[in-house]
Known about the structure:
The complex is a heterodimer of chains A (about 100) and B (about 300).
Chain A: E1 12-15, E2 19-24, E3 27-32, E4 37-41, H1 43-51, E5 56-57, H2 58-68, H3 73-90, E6 93-95
Antiparallel strand pairs in A: 1-5, 1-6, 2-3, 3-4
Chain B: E1 2-6, E2 9-13, E3 21-22, E4 32-36, E5 53-57, E6 60-65, E7 69-74, E8 78-83, H1 89-107, E9 111-120, E10 123-129, H2 135-144, E11 149-157, E12 162-163, E13 169-173, H3 174-180, E14 188-189, E15 196-200, E16 210-220, E17 228-231, H4 235-243, H5 251-254, H6 257-270, E18 272-278, H7 285-297
Parallel strand pairs in B: 2-4, 4-8, 10-16, 16-18
Antiparallel strand pairs in B: 1-2, 1-3, 5-6, 6-7, 7-8, 9-10, 9-11, 12-16, 13-15, 14-15, 17-18
Helix pairs in contact in B: 2-7, 4-6
Amino acid sequence: MKSDQNFCGSTIFLRSPDALHADLEGETVMMSIERGEYFGLNSVGSRVWAQLEAPQSLDQLCSALTAEYAVDDAQCREEVSAFLQEMLRLGIVSVQA
Amino acid sequence: MYCYRLYQLTIHSDIELPELLVGSADDVSADVLIRLGTVAPPPGDAGDDGEDGLWAAPDRFWFSVAGVASYDVTGGHTITIDAAVGSDAASIRLFLLGSAIGALLFQRGYLVLHGNAIRVGEACLVCVGDSGIGKSTLAAAFLQAGYSILADDVVPVTADGTAMPGMPRIKLWQDAADRLGLSTAGLQRIRPEMDKYNVPLAEHFCDQPLPLRWLYLLQQGEAGAATRVEEVTGLERFRVLCDNTYRLYFLRGMGLQERHFRQCADLAGRIRVKKITRPPEGAEPGDLVRLILQDAAD
């Protein structure tokens, strides 16, 4: 999977203030007010979102997730990068300036 | 000045609203005032061209229906109606008791669903679905089966998941009435040019608030497949509530998207959400009623 990375491992990500989230029986539903769209997070997305309670870099996110799940760093990076790209596109996370 | 009760609110109205439950003459203070008066057009050009228009802000909601009236809804307590020349009373009331009241209920903090609320025991179920799917026909079928209706079309729900009772009438298309063997002779049309009638509920109106326990989404499936009921789980429950909110498109201008999101997420956790899929050629309304009641009893 090609990832259009325009960020590096140390870029800090944070939750957008206008992104709403709610827990529905273990699944996370999110809404971007600005875009008027809502969507659900899969298990990877839900974990990354939970970690982003405090601003984190890709390095930090993968470090936490590989400790928690039996997944190697390369695979983790690929999945989490893809998730972050999508969340950037949807406007629910942003990059710390 | 006329007094009414609607959704547990005391209404004082300049115009007669025969569809509503009459209120007590002792209700000196009103929750809601409905007045005839001049309505200033909203900022910008939403109001100018004599076409239908809509404008929403957190403190004020305005809409206009060509040839009928302009409506201003403010503060969750005042609706002002500026009637167009040559407008008819039934049309004025139709939009008053629909979009105007809907906007008012949003201003007052309710989650408002677009469907019909039917009493089942000490709780209620709400049937929702796209326009034309058969919600009113189904409501009338429940009536025929002896059940009572709390609300038709506009169903306000409180934070603790209670549905509020509306007015003792449902709106029914002529062809739905024909299908159910109901006569529309002597009934009033909801608008002069429409083949849809106000059907009084009489003793089949449930005038008490009830906890909402089930939501049934009516939808159309493939030809030939039997009608079935399925549970809606997880995230999709939230989506069903969002999609079946009354006049969802009002909410952005009113600045209520965040609150609406929270209300839907909260209600999704409290109720059973089901979808009932019927074939394109339709299903016997009586069969749908039986299927739903059987499902709700489980």
